[in-house]
Amino acid sequence: KSPTDGWFTQRGGEKMNDFDLILFLLAFLFICGILSYPSLTEHFWIPSWRGAMIEAEQGTELQSTAHGKEGTVADAEDSANLKPVKAVDRVEAVREAFRHAWKGYKAFAWGHDELKPISKTHGEWFGLGLTLIDALDTMWILGLKDEFAEAKKWVETELSFSKNVDVNLFESTIRVLGGLLSTYHLTGDTLFLDKAKDIGSRLMPAFKTPSKIPYSDVNIGKGTAHPPRWTTDSTVAEVTSIQLEFRELSRLTKDPQYQNAVEEVTRHVHRLEGKRDGLVPMFINTNSGKFTRRGAFTLGARADSYYEYLLKQWLQGGKKETELLEDYLQAIEGVRKNLLRQTSPSKLTFVGELSNGRLNPKMDHLVCFLPGTLALGAHNGLPADHMELALQLMETCHQMYAQMETGLSPEIAHFNLQSNNGRDIDVKPADRHNLLRPETVESLFYMYRFTNDSKYRDWGWDILQNFNKYTRVPSGGYTSIGNVRDPLNPAPRDKMESFFLGETLKYLFLLFSDDNELISLDKYVFNTEAHPLPIWPSTSSGRSPELS
Ligand code: DMJ
To answer: Where are the transmembrane segments (predicted)?
Structure first.
């Protein structure tokens, strides 16, 4: 055999038959085609979460469209695999995502609380245009003038709080009152302040309880308030995370009633027995004013923003209200002492939950607000070890995304403490959903502002791309999904929460923006729904200057 015969011989050394030759030529032509037109592959393949290729037919509608026709985001994503994406492109990709979400809201849910993007209709919670109000300051910050103008027109002509409807005090405070106040500050337009006064005063009946601890629900039309049907308890996070907004409302209106009501709650909780090293239980009774169900401690649902608002009120008031700072510092020490653990084998630091003295190694995605809050405290002179803890927890929150097959975090992660077991993070079937929550991108934003470490931007960019891959609905909007572990069927749930526009996209935009003065963290505090409120000009007392 001559050496060149090798090109056309099979392993046995026999000559190829005609059929084999045709196959070989077809394969050769196919490879040449791919090399000349790489985009051809997009019609046949989509990359899975770790770069392996899966057949497009196996993917969901959501996946394939995210890679397909829509243009900007898919292009940005493809180029991300080849070269670093510039900050300006990332910022533009967030604007594009917002416009896509807004398109769905406008088409199918205009003026209603939430978009149901798959069924192309809306969901109602309070009937107050929740998504529209939550998104106002995001549009302003993103520079989406046309969208802002149409939303403002709706607020001007359609929004009425004179409605026989029960609203949740906490949710309507952080989303509606907070959203209107921050939009007033950003725009200077008194329309938003007038609306803020209107909703603020309608929420006040909630505080008429035997203990002054507010009820969870208020009828804003009738002026009556009540607890949930099954209990007279309120949630601790809910009654202690309305203070930034009501204090600001008092400052702006020069009417102390709002500030007095919420600070009465703060003082009461400050003195209350039943804390464990500064950690609070999850429920408080509106009759007795005492903590109930006292054995459980978490930094997640029902307690989370209590801790956040201790620090942020201290900042809002110009760092003068020392009891807030003391409670915050004590609580962080309480976290270290009672809740902090490390996983095996990778030593990821997490904040577990305590239940009757026993540590449950699970953490809500909600807890991922904590790295950002700790970093904010350290930036404002609190101990450097707060920043060290923030760095560690940020890594864990990142891993809660990176280790999932969709690259999106579950609602709750369970952590491995056994040295002989393989995986650091496990997810129970009931906890596999993702609601488009903001906490991790919120913390990434703080971490990037304070460290300038570009890895935080890269982590945020991955999250945005995975939202686009698995939660974007072609006709407009994004949807919560039921299973972050199944990229082939992420199980869309047909709901776009208002905080996706109010918080998630806003924090992503600020994370990618090179303009550190855009909502400077030395001038504003974000409420727990990502609505920036100004830090008060300094005075000698802890009261807002206009009231002191
Ligand atoms: C938002 O309404 C707020 O961030 C709140 O503090 C927690 N839950 C959602 C977002 O996850």
So the answer is: 21-40
